[in-house]
């Protein structure tokens, strides 16, 4: 009797663990945190910068450092309310916020540079379940004799991609809140070396999977829940990796360009497919790696769109692309490792694993994917 009770408790813990893992991966999409993109150029003794940022998170006072989901913040309700504001209502609040926040941006070019706010543009309200971009135009006079600049992104401001425009061999860097850039030559020539670029883009790729690539996480979990055997998982992951590497490169080069309105619903459909097939297949069917290869092509286009937003350094395209892809692979392997440690290691060999864990988890994954498909097509 005691053994039976213990077995039932183990089954309950296993089911809860697997469903909680899927649930946590699905609920955060609507509150995803996006990095700020900062483009700057020097002209006639002045520096001009445009920031593309998730303005509502800043105005709400959310600490974005290490933040993947605004629901984790005490100000999440304020953030959600701000996202529903029309541009003409949000713009004055953003301007008022910037009066106190702007001095926190550090810029030193042979002396401190005082930045001023020249303009604010807020995109119209679209799907309030997704972040919308806002644009800030800043400028400041450079001290006499300024040749290099060190830029400091404030604590609590989250991640930032800093890009130099209008020069040869421009600087491109990835900063976290509280970090400072290297000394950037204002006349150009500050492009990072190949090895440093490769290293810099690994966390960019990893971050796009964990914690921000929620649809990709569910797809990988769908692969994981097909079978507890290692060989089927290796075949699936290999097909997926090869495919998304191809389209990631083609998309980043601009050879292939498919609109997100087409790619994103199909990515959701791919999640539904792998999850539903898990309910009927007990092992790896011969056609599944081929189908997953096709879906991997779609996911690669999704990765390429993200990488396109960040911008690849013109002189270090290959190292940046490889670094990003390595980061993506590390993120996917981490998802699989966490899933194995959560349920596979403890319960994978139980005779009830498929019925009590893999199938319920696959049903949840399919339902989330179906919801995303409808949302992306019709909303």
Q: Would you give an account of this structure?
A:
It is a single chain. The chain is about 55% helix and about 15% strand. The protein has about 375 residues and is α+β, with helices and mostly antiparallel strands. The protein has a six-stranded mixed beta sheet with strand order 4-5-2-1-7-8. Strands 3-6-9 form a three-stranded antiparallel beta sheet, with no helix packed on it. Strand 1 (about 35-45) and strand 2 form a beta hairpin. Helix 5 (about 195-210) runs parallel beside helix 10 and helix 6 packs parallel to helix 8 (about 260-280). The termini are far apart. Residues about 10-20 and about 25-30 have low confidence and may be disordered.
Key phrases:
379 residues; alpha+beta; 6-stranded mixed β-sheet; single chain; 3-stranded antiparallel β-sheet; 11 helices
Concise summary:
By secondary structure, the protein is of the alpha+beta class. Helices cover 54% and strands 13% of the residues. The longest helix has 31 residues, at 317-347.
Strand adjacency order, main sheet: 4-5-2-1-7-8
Helix/sheet category: alpha+beta
What is the count of helical runs? 11
Report the major sheet: 6 strands, mixed
Envelope shape: globular
Instruction: Provide the β-strand percentage band.
Output: 5-15%
Q: Unreliable runs, pLDDT <50, ≥5 residues?
A: 12-21, 23-30
């Amino acid at each position: 009797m005691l053994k039976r009770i213990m077995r039932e408790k183990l089954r309950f813990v296993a089911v809860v663990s697997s469903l909680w893992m899927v649930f946590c991966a699905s609920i955060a999409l609507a509150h995803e945190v996006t990095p700020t993109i900062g483009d700057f150029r020097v002209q006639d003794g002045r520096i001009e910068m445009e920031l593309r940022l998730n303005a509502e998170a800043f105005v709400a006072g959310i600490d974005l450092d290490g933040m993947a989901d605004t629901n984790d913040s005490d100000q999440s309700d304020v953030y959600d309310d701000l996202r529903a504001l029309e541009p003409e209502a949000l713009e004055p609040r953003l301007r008022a916020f910037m009066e106190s926040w702007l001095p926190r941006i550090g810029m030193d070019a042979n002396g401190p540079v005082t930045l001023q706010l020249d303009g604010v543009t807020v995109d119209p309200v679209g799907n309030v379940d997704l972040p919308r971009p806002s644009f800030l135009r800043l400028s400041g006079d450079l001290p006499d004799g300024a040749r290099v600049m060190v830029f400091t992104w404030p604590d609590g401001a989250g991640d930032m991609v800093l890009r130099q425009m209008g020069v040869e061999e421009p600087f491109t860097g990835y900063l976290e809140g509280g970090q400072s850039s290297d000394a950037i030559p204002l006349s150009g020539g500050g492009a990072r070396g190949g090895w440093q670029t490769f290293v810099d883009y690994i966390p960019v790729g990893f971050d796009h999977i964990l914690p921000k690539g929620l649809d990709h996480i569910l797809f990988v979990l769908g692969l994981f829940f097909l079978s507890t055997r290692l060989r089927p998982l290796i075949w699936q992951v290999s097909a997926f990796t090869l495919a998304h590497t191809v389209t990631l490169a083609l998309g980043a080069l601009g050879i292939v360009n498919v609109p997100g309105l087409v790619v994103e619903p199909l990515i959701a459909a791919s999640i539904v497919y792998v999850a539903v097939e898990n309910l009927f297949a007990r092992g790896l069917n011969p056609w599944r790696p081929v189908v997953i290869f096709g879906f991997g092509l779609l996911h690669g286009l999704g990765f390429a769109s993200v990488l396109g937003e960040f911008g690849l350094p013109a002189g270090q395209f290959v190292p940046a692309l490889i670094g990003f892809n390595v980061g993506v692979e590390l993120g996917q392997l981490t998802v699989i490792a966490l899933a194995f440690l959560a349920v596979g290691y403890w319960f994978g060999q139980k005779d009830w694993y498929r019925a009590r864990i893999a199938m319920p988890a696959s049903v949840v994954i399919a339902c989330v994917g179906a919801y995303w498909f409808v949302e992306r097509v019709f909303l």
